[in-house]
């Protein structure tokens, strides 16, 4: 087969083209408004959308405003989009209107969307179905099922119906999906059973546990491999011993993914019945992931049997098997693995040795003599000529010494001679060493870290906080200069360090970008001005809040709030209520930056009230903002979301909890899991914790 | 009863009783009732907020836990079963050995000696130490 190196760049360009066109359009619209020139037809139509519901009925495709521009009107554009979907004769435009309604998530459009299921164009119907899935309502169940059952319906529409039904929690949906899963298609028909199973899995909270387990067991024995794969994932979440007998044969499945997930599920279930099957499988393993999964499963089920079995692999004639055995011995973290790893350290293969070095560093023990034994075993490698082995040995020794070998990291890695190892290799080793030293607060790497952070080479929370704690006037000046040149990765540092001149420069950036309210310059300068907290810039910031575009309004009002304008809290809430449902997750970060007491005191009570809204997109976004500020209180609303009757709300709550960056949320979720009495909520909590 | 039947295992029998059983099996496998719905637990069987006004106390500990890939989580899940425990806040270090932890608890529900006994039951080494979080946050 001939290689076509241009395909990748071409596909990337084609993928990015719509976004680029959207940005250019957005720029032109805001620019023309600022310049005061006559509006183009597209701009005129855009301007009339909130006030004239008929404005999109006769619009031509070339005059159709961009989706981001329409969404910037928020839910004020719903009526015009409904009329567009019902009355515009151009199917391509109706598709755009359905997509935009989907993004808005305004339930006032439900009836219009349900009517549009009768549209003659399959692409329009698909987008309408998707939109109905994003606004789950019991009234959509029968029309969607009726559409699915039409014999002349397109496959992609039927698939979309199953996806949409996964969001609508209703017993009619459960009954329908179970029936669809049971009906095996003819050979020439598309097989929708995997999609039906995925949708049913989303509704698992509506089913009795025994029924659910019975269904998953049946799917594990199905003739459809996609479905079997899905069922192995489901088994790992259910952790029911009753599934073990169905999972064991899948260790021999023809698909690698199924084999791995079956072993993973057996490990999660932890039923001793699986031990023999896992031990039998171990000598036949041919993939590293499989070996790892079996090792973890066995380590839980029968530790002695595991060490007997791994002994054979650690001394296998094939180096790649010895290498993986060493890796596994490290990952299970037991000191019992040390004798086997000591043998691997003397292996003829450097790869096996390196794997063993890393593994020794991971072993855990409270026995001081064993710890010393492990450190001694690594000693010869600390001065090893092979730089990779040396690097791993030094970090492993550092770890075993409870972080007490910074000297080795500094002298043998940070001070590495590039002429001996090549510039690229040396640079990576030096960078990793500098970050490790910075995390330990070592002052010797200050200038290196300053340079690295300012040029974006190692801009992490740990390195930024290291630098902030040691920033002198020179570093502060460089941070400000970098930010003014457009390196907005430094925004949080400028805001925290408050270098001399930061406020006038941030003000100038905001004024310079006045004609481009949706630009990064506007957003970042508002963030800096808000954080610096000098109320003298409040009038300027307030002027920026008086704008129709949603994001600048949010950023401006958040800055005003931080500068002491308590009325801005009402404007933030109003913007949230107008905001497309698709944009709400992004609003969490934009608003949660205002973590100063003055801002939280004004906004938090209003967010607490929003948490009780029936609009779950809005309610959970409000809870997610509060989760950044007051995790101990806000976590309960999101865990209640996991307990909701609606699978849509459950999924949304799960996504917000999974994305919350604070480690405290992990601790709170463990507490919730330990005390949870409902199996399906506990399953979800465990799944979130596994992914965090 | 499982939802699906293995097509190869279905044997058509002329006998009426077998037909009846088969029909019932198929009915069950074709969108029959999904069984009783999941029960929703009462507030007592889930985590509930405790008002800020309730007195809390904190103890800082240095622990070593039985080695396991998820040793920290296993410890938490067992200790949190006692509702006298408010929060278990770990340091950033990986692994199961010499881990710093701050445990916040409700002294009116759980006396300190009881808490320490529970911790000792779950850990291999327990030493008291100053609260970890304050030390950890310092750059």
Sequence-ordered SSE layout with sheet pairings:
The complex is a heterodimer of chains A (692) and B (139).
Chain A: H1 7-35, H2 41-48, H3 67-71, H4 78-87, H5 91-104, H6 110-115, H7 122-134, H8 141-149, H9 155-165, H10 171-182, H11 193-202, H12 209-220, H13 225-238, H14 244-247, H15 256-269, H16 275-281, H17 288-301, H18 303-314, H19 319-331, H20 338-345, H21 350-362, H22 368-382, H23 387-400, H24 406-414, H25 418-421, H26 423-439, H27 446-454, H28 461-470, H29 473-484, H30 491-497, H31 502-512, H32 520-532, H33 538-545, H34 550-562, H35 568-578, H36 584-592, H37 597-610, H38 616-629, H39 631-642, H40 647-659, H41 663-675, H42 679-691
Chain B: H1 16-29, E1 57-64, H2 71-79, E2 85-90, E3 99-105, H3 112-122, E4 125-128, H4 132-137
Description:
The complex is a heterodimer of chains A (692) and B (139). Helix content of chain A is 69%, strand content 0%. Chain A is mainly alpha-helical. Among the domains of chain A are: 41-181, Leucine-rich Repeat Variant (Alpha Horseshoe), CATH 1.25.10.10; 407-470, no CATH class; 472-565, no CATH class; 594-692, Leucine-rich Repeat Variant (Alpha Horseshoe). In chain A, helix 21 packs parallel to helix 23, helix 22 runs antiparallel to helix 23 (387-400) and helix 38 (616-629) runs antiparallel to helix 39 (631-642). In chain A, 48% of the residues are buried. Chain B has a four-stranded antiparallel β-sheet, with helices on one face. Chain B has helices at 16-29, 71-79, 112-122, 132-137, and strands at residues 57-64, 85-90, 99-105, 125-128. With 139 residues, chain B is an alpha+beta fold. The interface between A and B is large, with 65 and 54 residues.
């Amino acid at each position: 087969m001939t290689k076509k190196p241009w395909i990748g760049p071409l596909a990337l360009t084609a993928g990015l083209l719509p976004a680029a066109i959207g940005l250019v359009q957005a720029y032109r619209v805001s620019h023309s408004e600022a310049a005061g020139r006559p509006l183009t037809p597209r701009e005129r139509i855009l301007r009339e959308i909130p006030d004239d519901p008929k404005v999109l009925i006769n619009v031509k495709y070339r005059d159709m405003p961009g989706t981001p521009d329409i969404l910037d009107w928020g839910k004020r554009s719903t009526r015009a989009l409904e009329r567009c979907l019902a009355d515009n004769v151009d199917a391509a435009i109706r598709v755009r209107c359905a997509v935009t309604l989907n993004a808005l998530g305004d339930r006032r459009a439900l009836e219009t969307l349900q009517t549009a299921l009768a549209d003659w164009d399959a692409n329009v119907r698909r987008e309408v179905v998707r939109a109905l899935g994003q606004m789950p309502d019991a009234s959509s169940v029968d029309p969607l099922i009726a559409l699915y059952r039409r014999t002349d319906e397109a496959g992609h529409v039927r698939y979309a119906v199953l996806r949409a039904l996964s969001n609508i929690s209703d017993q009619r949906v459960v009954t329908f999906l179970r029936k669809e899963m049971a009906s095996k298609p003819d050979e020439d028909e598309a097989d929708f059973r995997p999609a039906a199973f995925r949708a049913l899995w989303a509704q698992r909270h509506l089913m009795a546990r025994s029924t659910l387990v019975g269904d998953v067991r049946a799917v594990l024995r199905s003739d459809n491999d996609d479905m079997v794969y899905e069922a192995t994932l489901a088994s790992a979440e259910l952790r029911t011993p009753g599934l073990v007998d169905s999972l064991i044969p899948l260790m021999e499945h023809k698909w690698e993914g199924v084999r791995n997930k079956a072993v993973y599920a057996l490990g999660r279930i932890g039923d001793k019945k699986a031990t023999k099957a896992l031990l039998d499988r171990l000598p036949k393993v041919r993939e590293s992931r499989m070996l790892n999964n079996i090792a973890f499963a066995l380590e839980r089920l029968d530790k002695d049997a595991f060490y007997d079995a791994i002994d054979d692999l650690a001394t296998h004639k094939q180096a790649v098997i010895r290498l993986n055995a060493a890796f596994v011995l490290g990952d299970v973290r037991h000191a019992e693995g040390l004798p086997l790893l000591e043998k691997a350290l003397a292996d003829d293969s450097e790869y096996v040795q390196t794997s063993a070095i890393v593994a020794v560093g991971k072993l855990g023990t409270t026995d001081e003599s064993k710890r010393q034994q492990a450190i001694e075993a690594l000693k010869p490698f600390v001065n090893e000529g092979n730089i990779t082995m040396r690097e791993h040995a030094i970090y492993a020794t550092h770890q075993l010494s409870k972080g007490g070998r910074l000297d080795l990291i500094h002298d043998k890695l940070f001070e590495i001679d590039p002429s001996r190892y090549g510039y690229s290799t040396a640079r990576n080793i030096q960078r990793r060493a500098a970050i490790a030293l910075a995390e330990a607060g070592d002052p010797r790497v200050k200038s290196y870290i300053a340079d690295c952070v300012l040029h974006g080479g190692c801009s992490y929370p740990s390195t930024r906080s290291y630098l902030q704690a040691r920033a002198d006037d020179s570093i502060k000046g460089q941070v400000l200069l970098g930010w003014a040149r457009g390196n907005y990765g430094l925004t949080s540092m400028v805001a925290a360090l408050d270098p001399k001149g930061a406020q006038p420069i941030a003000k100038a950036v905001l004024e310079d970008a006045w004609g481009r309210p949706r630009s990064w310059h506007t957003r970042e300068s508002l963030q800096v001005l808000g954080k610096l907290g000098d109320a003298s810039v409040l009038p300027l910031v307030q002027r920026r809040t008086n704008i129709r575009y949603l994001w600048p309004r949010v950023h401006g009002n958040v800055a005003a709030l931080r500068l002491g304008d308590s009325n801005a809290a009402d404007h933030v809430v109003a913007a949230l209520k107008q905001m497309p449902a698709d944009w709400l997750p992004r609003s969490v970060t934009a608003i949660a930056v205002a973590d100063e007491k003055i801002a939280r005191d004004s906004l938090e009570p209003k967010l607490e009230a929003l948490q009780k809204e029936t609009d779950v997109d809005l309610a959970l976004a409000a809870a997610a903002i509060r989760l950044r500020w007051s995790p101990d209180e806000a976590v309960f609303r999101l865990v209640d979301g996991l307990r909701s009757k609606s699978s849509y709300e459950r999924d949304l709550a799960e996504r917000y909890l999974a994305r919350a960056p604070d480690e405290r949320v992990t601790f709170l979720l463990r507490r919730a899991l330990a005390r949870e009495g409902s199996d399906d909520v506990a399953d979800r909590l465990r799944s979130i914790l596994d992914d965090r | 009863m499982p939802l699906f039947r293995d097509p190869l295992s279905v044997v058509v029998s002329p006998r009426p009783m077998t037909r009846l059983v088969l029909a019932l099996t198929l009915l069950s496998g074709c969108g029959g009732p999904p069984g009783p719905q999941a029960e929703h637990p009462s507030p007592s069987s889930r985590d509930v907020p405790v008002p800020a006004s309730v007195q809390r106390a904190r103890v800082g500990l240095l622990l070593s836990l039985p080695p396991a890939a998820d040793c920290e989580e296993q410890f938490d899940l067992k200790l949190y079963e006692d509702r006298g425990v408010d929060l278990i806040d770990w340091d950033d270090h990986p692994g199961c050995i010499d881990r710093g932890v701050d445990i916040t608890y409700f002294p009116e529900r759980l006396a300190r000696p009881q808490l320490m006994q529970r911790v000792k039951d779950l850990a291999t080494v327990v030493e008291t130490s100053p609260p970890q979080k304050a030390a950890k946050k310092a750059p």
